[in-house]
Amino acid sequence: MRGGLYLRVRVRVAKVDGHCPVFSEGDEFLFEDFFIKRGHECDICIHALNAISHFLWALTHGHSPKEIGIGKGAKGYLKCPDPGPPITKGGSVLFELSLED
Q1: Which residues contact 80 (CB under 8 A, 6 or more apart)?
Q2: What are phi and psi of 48, to 5 degrees?
């Protein structure tokens, strides 16, 4: 943490329910100073990015996942907005967001 700010939020795919054409369990990427840094090579779905981005400001400004209602300690959890079958051909992805100094 620098000056009250977390500069890195690691996003890991914790679980995929159904079929996601973009993510697999274990894929990860990193938000650092509001830039996306890739961990393992993976594409980033715009729908998932949109869901995650709403929480980035709070997380990178020292608010914990517990404080903003998405987890406990230094880890938070969010799902992508794809409802999956029978409504779509996709699947729902659970993301784990971890704060890093």
Answers
A1: 20, 45, 47, 48, 51, 92, 93, 95
A2: -65, -40
Tokens 């903003």 -> residue: 68
Q: In the block, which residue shows the tokens 């697999």?
A: 24
| pLDDT tens string 65-89 | 999 999 987 899 999 988 877 888 8
What whole-number distance in Å separates Cα of residue 23 and Cα of residue 16? Answer: 8
Query: E strand or H helix at 17, and its extent?
Result: strand 8-18
* Distance, CA of 64 to CA of 87 (rounded, Å): 34
Whole-prediction pTM: 0.85
Rounded-to-integer distance, Cα 81 and Cα 62, Å: 26
